[in-house]
Specification:
The chain is mostly helical and 301 residues long. The chain has a domain of 206 residues. Helix content is 75%, strand content 1%. The chain contains 13 helices and 2 strands; from the N terminus they run ααααααββααααααα. It has a two-stranded antiparallel sheet.
Length: 301
């Protein structure tokens, strides 16, 4: 990458790469857990849009009350973030109940939710961007702490917590067990339905956080935000070595996959590569990564 673009290793550009993958990284933590259980979530892009719109509307509603009632300026931020997390969690509960309790295919459930949430995002916003957000809320996406953008700190925190839960807790081991062999996990006394439901709810909370961060970064809630994010997130997870069949993978691998794709996009932009060709190159890299992972797994087995 440095050979293609001499400015690649500059501090400013490295921070740009980190910032560009922040939202995908947050979503990738939840998607990793979902895929480890053998599931999938195709609705994360629409969930980001809906969470962002609801967060912006909540911030406006509380901010207008603060202007007349003298409420603390922190309230719009708390209200917006709480609303985004609630919307994301609701989507996770919907998917988790359908998949874990009703035994519906995750692919079809989340495909339906993708359409529902996108429609609600346009309905709630009347098809318009919700702008003029409170400055305190925008800090979530535009603030700087110790020279590093706030979204990068939030992404690092999500990966840290995700790694700890999956690698160092009983719940994390249950997630691997359910994805590796759900029947055997159930016979071992694991509440497989509860684990699946909880995993989708946790994923939904991260979708809500990602929606709030993206809205704050843009300074407006856009109902068509997050288009194609589900493919980018799944690509990062798969490139990072997580098996789509479940039971194998890690959030550290997902971090590596997100960095790989973000780095490639950034370097190709700096090298002035044709934008249409860039998508071809990224697609080839994803394909090679998937084939390499399959061959590596076949060699081990």
């Amino acid at each position: 990458m440095s050979a293609l673009a001499g400015a690649f290793f500059s501090l400013g550009n490295l921070l740009n790469v980190a910032l560009s993958i922040a939202v995908i990284g947050i979503l990738g933590v939840g998607m990793t857990a979902v895929i480890l259980t053998g599931g999938i979530d195709l609705s994360v892009g629409s969930g980001v849009a809906l969470s962002g719109v609801v967060a912006a509307l909540a911030a406006h509603a509380v901010d207008s009350g603060a202007a007349t009632g003298g409420s603390p300026s922190l309230l719009p931020v708390v209200a917006a973030l709480g609303a985004a997390l609630a919307v994301g969690a609701a989507g996770g509960v919907f998917t988790g109940v359908a998949v874990a309790r009703l035994r519906a295919p995750a692919f079809l459930v989340t495909l339906a939710l993708l359409s529902i949430e996108r429609g609600l995002a346009f309905l709630f916003s009347s098809g318009q961007a919700v702008s003029d957000l409170p400055a305190g809320f925008n800090w979530l996406g535009q603030g700087i702490v110790f020279g590093v953008p706030v979204p990068v700190w939030l992404t690092a925190a999500c990966f840290g917590v995700g790694w700890f839960v999956l690698a160092r807790t009983t719940w994390g081991r249950w997630i691997y067990a359910v994805g590796g062999n759900e029947a055997a996990a159930w016979l071992a006394g694991i509440d497989t339905r509860g684990v699946t439901l909880g995993t989708y709810v946790a994923n939904g909370l991260l979708v809500g956080l990602a929606g709030a961060v993206l809205t704050a970064r843009l300074g407006a809630a856009v109902p068509n935000a997050g288009l194609g994010y589900e493919l980018d997130v799944i690509a990062a997870v798969v490139v990072g070595g997580t098996a789509l069949t479940g039971g194998r993978g890690s959030v550290l691998g997902t971090l590596a996959g997100a960095v790989c794709i973000g780095t490639l996009d950034n370097a190709l932009n700096l090298a002035n590569v044709d934008p249409y060709l860039q998508r071809v190159v990224v697609g080839v890299v994803i394909l090679l990564a998937v084939l390499g992972e399959r061959l590596r797994h076949r060699g081990r087995t």
